[in-house]
Structure formats: structure tokens, C-alpha cells
Task: inverse folding
């Protein structure tokens, strides 16, 4: 039976308890068994039937004829050892895909996203709401590895729920957006991202006999330097692009020239065209440096963990911003700069061909800035959790009849 009129105040203790429990029990991407079970239990307690799809969960609130709104939260965590000092800090250690025991922490706020969406769902499912229409509460696994949204789509998401007219999601950050505030913008909001692995091949030799080698470490090092010129000298200055070499790996002893050397890169852009331009330049440089060093075997180049561009619909974003100003007051609704982080959220919206709006939620105390993925990442529980739930409710009500 649906709950009677609820307010955010009346369920705050429950909402905070859910958040603390999720924070204490994080799970790695695509391994979120306990988290998924807890979400299902909370939905069932609201009288909402959970529908497990592709490692995620969808709960649907039906309130008669009207528009359909989909709201998404991600729920995976990261292999980070928590150092926040919180009384509900994670002490979890789990086995990763390689069978190695690693610490796990909600270092990106996905626990807060999930608790906010559950709280919004409980408010929207109560009888006090007079709007009609359908609301899908979608809880997604595996955002950190770019697997979760694709997994749900591959498992038939678009055929298992009614198509949404609009899709929403949000992300907590502890940067320039103060807690209690939301920030959004129309158009390109979060960048594309693609990881690239390049393996250069040479000829091994003793360190005292370099003339008998083709040195893949020199080859890779020259490529690293040259690749820093892609954005500086090939991408239009009016466009945005980033090429980061995060890993260079080759050799085991200082007096041995190895047979191979590997690079791992991360590429970001605000357009697919710029991303493709950068990726083509990376391949060109890798091949050219192999030729320049006299290599006989061309490099292996693999792209993986690719994230799409997050591009907010102009009209939808305007309506959401208006709803936020009505709910929070103009001083708590900020215009965001484009973010250089990336998301797989738009995979879900694009699968339905639905317009969407994605916004960020401030979680930092004044004067405190701790980046996501840090072992010290700890959003202020309140008013951040409350604001996250209220933002989702305000956005949904704006589009329901």
C-alpha cells in the first residue's frame, strides 16, 4: 500500500541510514551483489516491484496517464582505501578481477546518488503527490568501468520498460559547487573519454650493446613527447582536448633493453570529431616513431573503456533550471562550466532516443575542496543528501502532468 503524505523531514532518518549502509558496504563495478539486493529491498518496502536488468535495477511508479520520466543513479565503488575518518567509513576488502584483494570505497559519491534516488522514489510514490504519469527509478551498475549502462541496454532495457519522454541524472562533487546547491548547463556538459593502450615492439639487447637493439623504451618515450603536440598544434584552439599518458611500462632490469614497452593513455574531448582527430593522430605518431627507430613490427593499438559525450538538451535543461529555481531559490542554482570528467549515463538516454539533463550536486563545506576518487572524498551528508532527493523530485514534477 502506498505511504500517506510524506515530507523530506519525516523520512530523513531513514534516508541517512540507507546512505550510511551503502557507504559502509561498497562493491566494485559489476560485482555489486549486496548493493543491488539492498536497493530491491527498499523498493519492495515502498510497494514498488524491482525489475533486475543487466546487473542494475528499475523500479516503476505508475500514477495514471501522462508523461514518463526516467531518473538514473549509479551504485558502484572504487578500489580505494578510505581515509575519511568517518564513523561509517568503509573497511571492505574484496577480490578484484585478477583475484587480488583490494580495498573498496565509495570515493565518487555513487552511494549518495543511490540514496538520493531511493529517497526521491519514496517521496514520489506517496499519496501526497497529485501529478500523473510514470516514473522509472533506474539504478545502474558499473559506471566506473563504462560497462553498466551498456549492460542494461544489452539485456533489453528498452523493451522491458515504457520509453521515457525525458531522462535525468546527477553527480555529487566536492569542488567549487557548495553543498546545498546544484549546477547545470545546456549543451556539452561532460567530455568524451577513451582509454588507449599502445605496445611498441623492438629488439632486445644487453644494455652495453645498444647498437644491436631497437629500443622500444626510446620509441615510446619519443612518442609521449610528440603526442603532447597533438592538442597544442593540431586541435583548433577553440576546441577542447586532452591527451594524458598515465602509464609507461617496459623492462625489468637497468642493463637489459627489453623487447617491448607499453603506454596507456586517456583522451578527452567535447566532440566526437575532436576525439577521432586525436585518436588518429596518436596512431599516426605511434607508427611513425616505430619507423623512425627502425622497428620491424608495428605497434598494437587498442581503445577501451570509451565514454560518450554528455550533451544536455537545451529545452529540457531550461525547464529543469526553472524547476530548481522554484524549489531552491535562484541563489542555489548555478551555471556550470563544462566538466572534463566523463559519464556513461547518456548511453541509456540515447538507447531510448530521449532528451536528457544531467546536473552536479554540491557536496563540499565552504572553503573545502576534495576531488572525487580521493581516499579523503566525503560529501557533507546534509544538506547534500536532502538536496539530491529534492532536485530529482523537482525535475520529475516539472515534467509530469
Result:
Amino acid at each position: 500500500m502506498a505511504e500517506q503524505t510524506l515530507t523530506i523531514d519525516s523520512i530523513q532518518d531513514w534516508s541517512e541510514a540507507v546512505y550510511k549502509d551503502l557507504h559502509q558496504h561498497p562493491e566494485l563495478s559489476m560485482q555489486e551483489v549486496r548493493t543491488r539486493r539492498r536497493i530491491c529491498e527498499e523498493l519492495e518496502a515502498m510497494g514498488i516491484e524491482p525489475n533486475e536488468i543487466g546487473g542494475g535495477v528499475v523500479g516503476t511508479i505508475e500514477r495514471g496517464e501522462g508523461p514518463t520520466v526516467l531518473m538514473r543513479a549509479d551504485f558502484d565503488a572504487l578500489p580505494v582505501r578510505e581515509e575519511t575518518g568517518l564513523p561509517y567509513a568503509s573497511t571492505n576488502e574484496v577480490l578484484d578481477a585478477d583475484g587480488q584483494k583490494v580495498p573498496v570505497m565509495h570515493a565518487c559519491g555513487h552511494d549518495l546518488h543511490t540514496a538520493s534516488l531511493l529517497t526521491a522514489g519514496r517521496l514520489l510514490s506517496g499519496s501526497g503527490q497529485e501529478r500523473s504519469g510514470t516514473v522509472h527509478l533506474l539504478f545502474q551498475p558499473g559506471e566506473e568501468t563504462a560497462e553498466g549502462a551498456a549492460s542494461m541496454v544489452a539485456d533489453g532495457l528498452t523493451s522491458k520498460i515504457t520509453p521515457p519522454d525525458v531522462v535525468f541524472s546527477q553527480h555529487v562533487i566536492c569542488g567549487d559547487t557548495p553543498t546545498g546547491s546544484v549546477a547545470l548547463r545546456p549543451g556539452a556538459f561532460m567530455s568524451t573519454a577513451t582509454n588507449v593502450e599502445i605496445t611498441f615492439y623492438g629488439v632486445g639487447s644487453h644494455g652495453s650493446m645498444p647498437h644491436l637493439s631497437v629500443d622500444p623504451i626510446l620509441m615510446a618515450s619519443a612518442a609521449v613527447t610528440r603526442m603532447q603536440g597533438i592538442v597544442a598544434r593540431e586541435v583548433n584552439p577553440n576546441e577542447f582536448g586532452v591527451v594524458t599518458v598515465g602509464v609507461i611500462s617496459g623492462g625489468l632490469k637497468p642493463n637489459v633493453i627489453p623487447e617491448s614497452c607499453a603506454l596507456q593513455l586517456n583522451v578527452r574531448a567535447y566532440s566526437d570529431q575532436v576525439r577521432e582527430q586525436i585518436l588518429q593522430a596518436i596512431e599516426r605518431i605511434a607508427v611513425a616513431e616505430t619507423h623512425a627507430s627502425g622497428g620491424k613490427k608495428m605497434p598494437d593499438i587498442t581503445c577501451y573503456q570509451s565514454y560518450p559525450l554528455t550533451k544536455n538538451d537545451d529545452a529540457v535543461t531550461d525547464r529543469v533550471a526553472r524547476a530548481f529555481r522554484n524549489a531552491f531559490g535562484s541563489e542555489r542554482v548555478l551555471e556550470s562550466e563544462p566538466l572534463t570528467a566523463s559519464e556513461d549515463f547518456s548511453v541509456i538516454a540515447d538507447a531510448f532516443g530521449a532528451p536528457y539533463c544531467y546536473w552536479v550536486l554540491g557536496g563540499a563545506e565552504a572553503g573545502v575542496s576534495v576531488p572525487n576518487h580521493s581516499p579523503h572524498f566525503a560529501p557533507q551528508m546534509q544538506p547534500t543528501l536532502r538536496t539530491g532527493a529534492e532536485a530529482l523530485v523537482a525535475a520529475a514534477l516539472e515534467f509530469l502532468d
Notes: The domain at 192-306 is CATH 3.30.70.360 (Alpha-Beta Plaits).
